[in-house]
Every structure is written in structure tokens, then in C-alpha cells.
Amino acid sequence: MLKPFINQSLKLCFLGLAVVCTASHASKEDFTKTIEIASQYQHGDGIARKSFYRGNVLITQGSLVVKADEMEIDGSKGEGKEVFVALGKPAEYSQQQEDGSIVTAKAERIEYQRETRTLSLQGNAEIVQNSSSVKGNSIVFNMQLEQVMAQGQDQEDGRVITILQPESASKQKQEVQP
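Predicted structure:
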């Protein structure tokens, strides 16, 4: 009786994570790896098409890692319209990209909407790649359009903080030489 639900739950999780990874040019090998969800508590409702994980939640698939206090997967609106919500102090996402760099994101709430391919970070939100970062109270990243929108944080003067690192000297030198 639980097998169809577990299969559906894993399918929903895999599809959502796969789309998140694809948009950020993650290692293609990750998609061939097994998904593992570990938590101290799990509840699934096959009729409602929802699953809930609580307590030291850890999701891994290849280099992709999601850590949260709680995770909910809502597939009630049908395939392709799933919503994934990770909560934590903070919830964290990380994955190695094809170029070897690591992308990390953290916030008190991370929501992924599969239909719109949108990742929303709320509460002390931050995205970091190659030592560059964006910090704010909330960050919305449309993966399909590669657009980022951030709103100010409560710290300091309430502005969004973006830190861009300069290109390395060796990369600049290679570009100058014919």
C-alpha cells in the first residue's frame, strides 16, 4: 500500500530537484544518482499527494545536498506543478556545477515551484557562487529566465548587499594574449 506513495513521493522529489539542478548547470551525473531522503520523522498522504519530513532532514543526489529542519512536498496540483518547501535556521542547498564551482543558497525558507522554475529564498537569504554573493531578506530566482530579484534585509540600512569578486589575474592575462 505504501509502495505507490513512496514511488510517487520520490518521483516528485527527483523531478523537482532535477529541474533545480538543470537550471544552474549542475553536474549531469547527479541526475543518474539515487535520491536519498533522511529525516527523523516522515508522513506521506498518497491521496492528497503530499509528503512531510521533519527533524534533521537531509536530501542527497550526487553532489546536490539539501539540509533543513522540515521539508514538505506538495504534488496536489498535478505533475509538473509540484511545490517543495524547506524550512530551517537556515535551510541550505548546495551543488557542484559542471565547472567545478559550488553554488550554495540558504534562508529560513526555501521554496521551489516546478511549474514556474522559481526558487524563492525568504528570511536571511543568501546565494553564493565563486566568492560572489547576494544577500537580502528575500531573493527570487527565475531559473528559466536567469533573473534574480532581491529585497532588502532588516540589518544595517535595509538594502540588498551584492558582493562581486574581480576576475583572477591569470584569467585576465589569458584574455589579453592572442
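Summary: The chain has two helices and ten strands.
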